[in-house]
Specification:
By secondary structure, this protein is α/β, with parallel strands linked by helices. The chain has 9 helices and 4 strands; from the N terminus they run αβαβαβαβααααα. The chain is globular, with a radius of gyration of 19 Å. Bound molecules: zinc ion (ZN).
């Protein structure tokens, strides 16, 4: 039972201490992750990071509230794989918008959207909600939080189900990982140099890009690497939450 975790709280406890300064909304996904990680990988990972970050903040006196993770994300480019479960970007935006409205109604006026799935593209939603809600919104892809130290932990960059995500799995849900079954996570280039260089963007059809949905070699993964990246990411996010919780919502916010 964690006092920052809404799923754990009773109404009795909420009645005693109803005010929270920051809501943290984790976003996951339901999709294949190579042959060896579970469909819930993105949700399991973001839930751990959110929980650790909120715990870090709570220990430093910040009244943060971890909301239940949304277990679905945008999968329009993964639908060539069986049982990828899609919420279109506009649907996901409606869900998040309704939850932000709920926070506003309950007086929680700061919110960190903690994203755990690369297919969720939400900066536009912050722009759209900016004048529509009193809630001050922040967006974080947890997997980018430690990119500056990434090479000190991992051998190769992870796009999907590679060394980093597999290390997270080994650290936090090892009973659900079948690393011996993984393929090497090789990806193809498109026929367009501009796309391959990145100055023209597309949404990549994942079943054509990859062999078994993995993009990145998972075979150097270890639990210790996953635990180290978790510690760095959750402490950094936790420190931000402490600052955000203590920050007055004055006219100059966030400056
Ligand atoms: Zn993932």
């Amino acid at each position: 039972m964690h006092p920052w975790n809404l799923e754990d709280l009773t109404y009795g406890r909420v009645k005693q201490a109803p005010s929270f300064a920051v809501g943290v909304l984790p976003l996951g996904a339901t999709e294949p992750h190579n042959l060896h990680l579970p469909y819930g990988t993105d949700t399991f990972q973001v839930d751990v990071i959110a929980d650790r970050a909120c715990g870090h903040a709570w220990e430093r006196g910040a009244r943060v509230l971890k909301l239940p993770a949304i277990p679905y994300g945008t999968e329009t480019n993964q639908m060539g794989f069986p049982l990828a479960m899609n919420l279109n970007p506009s649907t996901l935006a409606k869900v998040i918008g309704d939850l932000v409205d709920s926070l506003a109604a309950h007086g929680v006026l700061r919110c960190l959207i903690l994203n755990g799935h690369g297919g969720n593209d939400l900066k536009w939603l912050l722009r759209e909600l900016h004048r529509a809600t009193p809630v001050r919104l922040f967006l974080c892809d947890w997997f980018r939080v430690g990119l500056d130290v990434y090479e000190t932990i991992f051998q190769a960059r992870d796009d999907h189900a590679g060394e980093m995500e597999t290390s997270m799995g080994l650290a936090h849900f090892p009973e659900k990982v079948a690393l011996a079954e993984a393929d090497a996570g090789a990806v193809k280039s498109t026929r367009f140099e501009a796309v391959n260089r990145g100055w023209v963007q597309i949404t990549r059809p994942w079943h054509l890009l990859t062999t078994n949905s993995g993009a990145g070699d998972p075979r150097a993964a270890t639990a210790a690497k996953g635990e180290e990246y978790t510690r760095i990411a959750s402490e950094r996010i936790g420190r931000f939450l402490v600052e955000l919780a203590a920050s007055p919502l004055d006219a100059a916010f966030p400056f």
